[in-house]
Design brief:
Helices cover 57% and strands 6% of the residues. The protein is mainly alpha-helical. Helix 6 packs across helix 7 and helix 13 crosses helix 14.
């Protein structure tokens, strides 16, 4: 859908005008938070700067960093701080420049906004809140400067019931009801984890296993309610998913399924047991109860930052594989050398596996101290292992951190675009909805 810059809204019906203004604000916010270039409009008013009138250059000092531009560049947007007479009160006679105690990195983007005649690109390394604060301080109001009119005559389509249900489940800010649902989900997760931990306490464990106790039925009923909620939430997400056949392609949906499966497997095992208890299916029940810890991963869905981190880790899989291979080679090499160096020394290295255990504890700088070489050769090998272990960990980590920062910035921008897309959908200016 294309949009063209205009200077007025003459001839538009009042309802259409309201929608157009709404789109103007939404698109302006999108340009402020992403790399979308925007066209400009200008009142072309002239401003006579009281200082630095000897030439066409203007010097601006931002927290010690000096920028130089021309008067015409700043005059292009007269409604902003730098393009209006308000800039004069920031002139510093000692510096012979206009001084601002503001964010230097963000000012580079603001100055580029003037130089490019209205193209604003938000810095990737600057927090979104700082971007908004700096734009507000310098009075760069994108929603006011830029106006858009839809070239196509077709009005936006209303969201379907399925789309509304999807937004309700995936976006806690979609409505108050959605926020209440998200709160109930987090409460259910916390209660589930608390029950799992409490069941392992010896003094509390009888209340979870002895059916003649009243507390047993209360706790079991609570467990049923929690799993019923998880099951309902999972079913509604599957029904409302934009492309149901791709539902399990999302890792979080797979984790949701793994969070509810143990309860039903455990229930079937107990019902099919002749004694009505775990019986010979004790191992299956133990595995099922241990698997309930997967429910804590449901918290990821309620944190955009955790979602971004999870995607970044997946994007850096090659670097993690490289690190794992280096550690594996190191562990096997020094574990084997230490085993043969300590033969007959009664130092506890009875096998290469124990040598590998010592090696991995050493390379990760944990150092439990349960095993230590006693021979001179073994200590020399241990010294080399300690030094090389630090190097082996440090070299790949620089690559992983660099890749992580790069991927984190990209994924964060994608997440912000999806959030803005949902905002536009709720406002009626978007025709489709995305997957989260």
């Amino acid at each position: 859908m294309a949009f063209a810059a205009v200077n007025h809204h003459a001839g538009l019906p009042s309802s259409r005008l309201g929608r157009t203004r709404l789109k103007s604000t939404v698109l302006a916010v999108m340009a402020a938070r992403s790399n979308l270039p925007m066209k400009y409009q200008n009142n072309n008013s002239q401003l006579d700067y009281l200082h630095q009138t000897e030439n066409n250059l203007i010097k601006i000092n931002v927290s010690g960093k000096e920028f130089t531009t021309t008067k015409e560049t700043l005059r292009f947007f007269p409604d902003t701080l730098l393009g209006s007479s308000e800039i004069e009160k920031y002139y510093n006679d000692e510096l012979k420049a206009y001084y601002f105690d503001r964010h230097r990195g963000m000012f580079s983007a603001i100055l580029f906004f003037y130089q490019s005649r209205g193209v604003f690109r938000s810095p990737t390394n600057v927090d979104r809140d700082i971007v908004e604060e700096e734009l507000e301080f310098f009075k760069v109001d994108l929603a006011k400067i830029f106006t858009f009119e839809e070239e196509e005559e077709s009005l936006p389509k209303e969201l379907t019931l399925r789309q509304k249900l999807h937004n309700f489940l995936m976006d806690p800010h979609y409505s108050r009801a959605a926020m209440v649902w998200a709160f109930c989900d987090m409460l259910a997760i916390v209660l589930s984890v608390v029950l799992l931990v409490a069941e392992s306490v010896p003094k509390v464990n009888p209340y979870f296993n002895e059916r003649d106790r009243t507390a047993y039925w209360f706790l079991y009923t609570l467990e049923i309610i929690i799993n019923a909620f998880f099951t309902l939430d999972f079913t509604l997400k599957f029904i409302s998913w934009p492309r149901p056949f791709l539902f399990f392609k999302n890792v979080l949906n797979v984790l949701d399924l793994l969070a509810i499966l143990p309860f039903y497997i455990e229930l079937i095992a107990m019902l099919t047991s002749e004694s009505g208890s775990a019986g010979d299916k004790f191992v299956v029940l133990r595995i099922c109860r241990t698997s309930r810890v997967v429910r804590i991963f449901r918290f990821i869905r309620h944190s955009k930052e955790l979602i971004v981190v999870m995607k970044v880790i997946g994007g850096a899989a090659r670097e993690f594989v490289l690190l794992s291979l280096l550690i594996a080679i190191f562990v096997l090499l020094f574990g084997t050398l230490l085993y043969y160096a300590e033969l007959g020394q009664d130092s506890g290295f009875d096998s290469i596996l124990l040598g590998c255990w010592w090696s991995i504890v050493t390379v990760t700088t944990v150092g439990y101290g349960d095993l230590a070489p006693k021979s001179t050769v073994g200590r020399l090998i241990g010294s080399v292992a300690v030094v090389l272990g630090i190097v082996i960990l440090a070299l790949p980590m620089t690559v992983i951190v660099s890749k992580f920062n790069e991927s984190y910035g990209a994924e964060k921008r994608k997440a912000e675009k999806k959030t803005l897309a949902r905002i536009r959908a709720r406002a009626g200016v978007n025709e489709d909805f995305g997957e989260i």
